[in-house]
Request: fold
Amino acid sequence: MKLERTQLKQEYRDEHDTWIKFRHNFAAHSGAARLEYVEIALVLPLKAKDDVLPMLYRELFQPDLALPEPGQFKLAEVVEHARSIALSKIELLTKKIMDEEVLPKGKKYWLNK
Reply:
C-alpha cells in the first residue's frame, strides 16, 4: 500500500520527510536482507460454516523503532497520521478483494486450495 506525501496534512510533511530519510537509509536501502516486509494471509474456518466469511489479514514484519524523548519530535503523531491514511486505503482494498475475488468464488473453492 503506497502512501503519497501529498496525502499527509501539511503540518506533518517536514517531520515526515526527516523520518522517511532515516527509514530509507535503514530499511529500504539496507541491502539484500529483507528487514521489512508484509505478507497477506487469507484465513477461513476449517469446518464448513456457511455463516463465517473468510478474512484477509496483514502480517507485518519490521524492526522495532526507538522513539525520541517526548516533545523532542512529533514522530508518533506523524506515524499515527500516516497510518490512519494507510489503514483507510487498506480497508477499501480489502473490501474490493473480498467482493471481487474471494466471495464470488465461494467457500468450497478456497477450502480446496
